[in-house]
Each structure stands twice: as structure tokens, then as C-alpha cells.
DNA sequence: GTGGAGTTGTAAATGTTTTGTAAAAACCGG
DNA sequence: CCGGTTTTTACAAAACATTTACAACTCCAC
């Protein structure tokens, strides 16, 4: 389909030319060097990566990683995202996107800046 | 009826050769590029697109998107419409029509640019 | 047609909310 | 305790929303 697929994702792990996350052994590597992540940092990354390409709302992240309920307001998430980004170095912006007013999204690595141009209907009900 | 129907609309999304709006995932794309819309911008667009072809009065838009009641007068709507149009680029005029004294209308894309032009005034108050 | 009241378009200023960041405090297992 | 981790705090910065002020436009009465 003319799109260079450079990232693979599965229940067992995620992999692209720079980043690798092993959901089974619970660690991540950047350019073949193991990342030293704390538990929360890893869980946050894993949750984002498992849902690569999808926006995960703050409350969902706080729920899944911290066990917090909807109404809790805290900057904890942001602080952890910051530390994660720091460890992801120069790729951080490419990988972890901020969705204003909603949450965050992990964007899988792409070689080519996708420009499909083709008009292809999305599934529209029955 | 000799009119090339090129746009499809459903509870799940709207699509034509240029514009696509996914009501489920809440985003829109223009020529296959995702539009970066703020929440209000998206909600405004979605409401218009969901009722494509129909005139939506100002007070209805202000009610549905902003929660404002009838009597509130504000330019907020106009400013948002402007920003939406800007992001819709060269198609903006084609898509978002101003109905003087009443509101706005999203006009679904049509291959044959049949000049509608005519506006049948609806009953204007008693 | 013309004028004028009312409506919409627009840019810029202002206000509000959300996120980023550094630093300090609290926590927690060993 | 001690060192690493996590959370909180406090403020800065960014994103977004609204208001303001005025220009441009539309429509209708004349």
C-alpha cells in the first residue's frame, strides 16, 4: 500500500528502528541501549505504547497507572511524562504527544511522513 | 436526478473527496491530512456536518456547543466559524455558508457546483 | 438606486484553562 | 536511617476561548 511500515506492535512487544518495548520482560531500549525506567515510568510508557496511535485521556492513565478515580486532580502524570520524555531523548516529542485538554498519545515511529492522498471510505455502519 | 452525489453521511461519519469527519473518534481530515481542531472548533464543525444541508440558527449553535441560552449575544460563534473556515482552507466558503440573520449551514461537497444561491426565508418570528 | 439599521467578518487584546518545569517534601523498601 | 522513587507545590509557559472594536456586508424601506 505504498506506506513504509517501520513499527510493529503486538501483545508481546513494540519495535521500531529506535525504540523497543518488551511487554513480557517489562523493559524498554532506545537505540539498543536499555532504558533505566522506574516502575511508574515503565507502566506509563507501556500503556501508551500498547495503545500506540490512540489518544489516552488523562483520567484513564491516572486510573490505570495510579489507580486514581476520575475526580482526582494532580500534576503527577505530567511530571512522569516529563521524566519519560527526558529519557526518550531527542525522539521524545515525536513519540509522546500531548493532546490538549484530553491526554497523551504515543505515536509509532514512521519513516515516511504518511501522505496517502487516496480517498477510501471508512466503514460507515451497515 | 442528474446530480452527482459524492458525499456520504451517517451517524458515524461524513465523507466526501476532500473532507472527512469521524464522529466516533472525533476528528476531521482535509485531503487526507488530519485537521488540528480545538474542542470547540471540532464540536462546531461536527454539529454543522451532522446536519449537512440544513440551516442551523445561531442560537442553536450557541446552545449546543456553548450551552448558552437564547438571549446571550456574543461574537464568539463568529470568531470560531472564522477559525474553522481558515483551517478548511480553500474549501471553506464552499462548505460553511452564512445565512444572514439566521445562522450557518454546512453544504456537503458536490462534484457539480450547482449554484444553489437561493435562500427561501423561513418564517421570521411573529 | 440610496441610506441606514442591523448583522457578520476580522484582527487584536484580554481572560481562562491546561500543561511544562524545577525544586522541595513525602514516601518506601532494604 | 539511606538512597532512590514518587508526589506535591508553586510558578512559568503554552494553548485555547472570549471579548472588543471596528470594518464590511446584507437587506429593506424609501
Radius of gyration of chain A: 16 Å
Secondary-structure element series of chain A = EEEEEHEHHHEE
The name of the CATH superfamily of chain A reads: Winged helix-like DNA-binding domain superfamily/Winged helix DNA-binding domain
What does the largest sheet of chain A look like? 5 strands, antiparallel
Tally of helical runs of chain A: 4
By CATH, the topology of chain A is Arc Repressor Mutant, subunit A
Q: What share of residues are in beta strands of chain A?
A: 15-25%
Q: What's a quick, concise take on this entry?
A:
Chain A has 126 residues and is α+β, with helices and mostly antiparallel strands. Chain A contains 4 helices and 8 strands, in the order βββββαβαααββ. Mean pLDDT of chain A is 86; it is low at 113-126.
Structure description:
2 copies of one chain form a homodimer. In chain A, α1 packs across α2 (58-66) and α1 (39-50) packs across α3. In chain A, the strands form 2 sheets. Chain A has a 5-stranded antiparallel beta sheet, with helices on one face. In chain A, strands 6-8-7 form a 3-stranded antiparallel beta sheet. Chain A is globular. Chain A contains 4 helices and 8 strands; from the N terminus they run βββββαβαααββ. Chain A has a single domain, classed as Winged helix-like DNA-binding domain superfamily/Winged helix DNA-binding domain (Arc Repressor Mutant, subunit A, Orthogonal Bundle), CATH 1.10.10. The relative contact order of chain A is 0.18. By secondary structure, chain A is of the alpha+beta class. Chain A binds a DNA duplex (30 and 30 nucleotides) through residues 38-41, 74-76, 78-82, 98, 100-101.
